[in-house]
Amino acid sequence: MDVDRSIDMNALELLEQMREKNKCGVYDEFGFTSYLEIQKFSEQIGTALAKYVSINMPVAVYMEKSVLALESFFGIHYAGGCYSFLNPELPDERLKNIVTVLQTNIIITDGSFYERAVSLFPEFIILKVEELRKFPCDYEVLQAIRSKKIDTDPLYINFTSGSTGLPKGVVVSHRSVLDFISYFTEIFHITGEDTLANQAPLDFDVSVKDIYSALRTGANLVLIPRAYFSNPMKLMDMLVDYKVTTMIWAVSALCLISTFHGLDYKPLEHVNKVMFSGEVMPMKHLKSWMEHLTQATFVNLYGPTEITCNCTYHILDREREYDKIPIGKAFPNEDVFLLDESNRRIDEPFKMGEICVRGSELALGYFNNSLETNKKFVQNPSQKNYIDLIYRTGDLGYFNEQNEFFFSGRKDFQIKYMGHRIELEEIERAIHDIEGISRCCVIFLEEKSRLVAFYIGNKSEIEIRQILKEHLPIYMIPTKWISISEFPLNKNGKIDRKALGGMI
Questions:
Q1: Please, which contacts does 439-442 make with residues 24 or more away whose CB atoms are closer than 8 Å?
Q2: Which of 11, 6, 21 has the alpha carbon at shortest distance from 221?
Q3: Alpha helix segments (H runs only) across 160-282
Q4: All domains of the chain, ordered by start, with CATH?
Q5: pLDDT tens digits for range 242-283
Q6: Helices 35-49 and 139-146 meet at what angle, rounded to 10?
Q7: Apex 467 CA angle, 461 and 471, nearest 5
Q8: Do 420 and 89 contact (CB within 8 A), yes or no?
Q9: Rounded CA gap, 32 and 335, in Å?
């Protein structure tokens, strides 16, 4: 594919080089802000932050998703740092753990969350974005900072579940995003005529595609408020009113609309691209969407946070009968392959192996966590002559005779649930920490998309769930609890998870 390659070195250049940026921009629940205004306020925020931020320093942003949050992200870039979004939906304990990993002392918030931020992080420098954006821009300061930056510097840090109890911060560079987005927008024909509807929280890498695709092409971006996903009709009204053309959404969000018959409520006449990821798309929900949007292109995307959003894609063929939807083929400039148990590359169809990825889209590793980084970002076993890092996804897969990849589950205790990658060990660790619980085991029923916890202890389900809400996001709390007197063991003396599954 002949893709117009950008020579951009910094993601800010996508914003700065945009044509007619006074006519396009971002909609949030407070109204419309042009990209020209966003750039102006971001430069002012960057100037204000310059005295606090050193090169590549992480800065946390704590507020609801909004134009102010985006301006904070870009302002942090102008100041030479990288951003990490603190989702207000997360429990306080988890937010504190994230900040502990980041080792930062600066948090940007807005007026509505300022008091909570001060209470939650009493020893930190808490800065109001409303005040920062009043600061006069100093272009000389910003240029001096820019001259010290290179394209492999960190752009953002997004957090995933960690088996040790602490979340893992995935560090992604400017270059990785610039490379990926250039291909992504070209392949799927995203242009300045499009309007993208952002569904994902800003700490979820799906939002990276929304933000930076819009910046690269000059497309309008609509930030859908979280509350709208509790009201499918209001959500549909918004998609129609803003003439949304492009939906890059988590599977669970698309299923929400089809479950509540939102597609029957109001036709999405302008939507021509629907891309989904995060987990396996149920066929009945996919068929409902395709029947209602007869002219739209549907795309299955695959890839963990560690490889900058996605590494494979499959454009759905309306004439094809699917038993299973492929995760497809690799994006340009990414090498996706399978390794067997002996670390040999698999070249024959239908043979199972671990999905691995190499290329410029690989993350820089896990922030402040060299142990986990060295486990997952490893030397390519087939290359002995120079450094050639690959990322081992932990996902199992195979390819068919047409070289289409298929996802087949996990080789460890990590799962994909509600669009999130979750370490079952982290959930178990949190349960074990509860007084009165002597032992527990959490399993995932993929066919029912259900987290089930088995435990030995004297606490009730209600008591356990209430305690966990203070430590874990809601999507990590099991939906079914089973109290048992003893755990079945396998021949190695470990908990027999298959036997537990048979007890449900």
A1: 439/487, 441/487, 441/495, 441/497, 441/500, 442/478
A2: 21
A3: 174-187, 206-217, 232-241, 251-259, 262-265
A4: 12-315 (3.40.50.12780), 414-501 (3.30.300.30)
A5: 999 999 998 888 988 988 889 999 899 999 999 999 878 888
A6: 80
A7: 130
A8: no
A9: 40
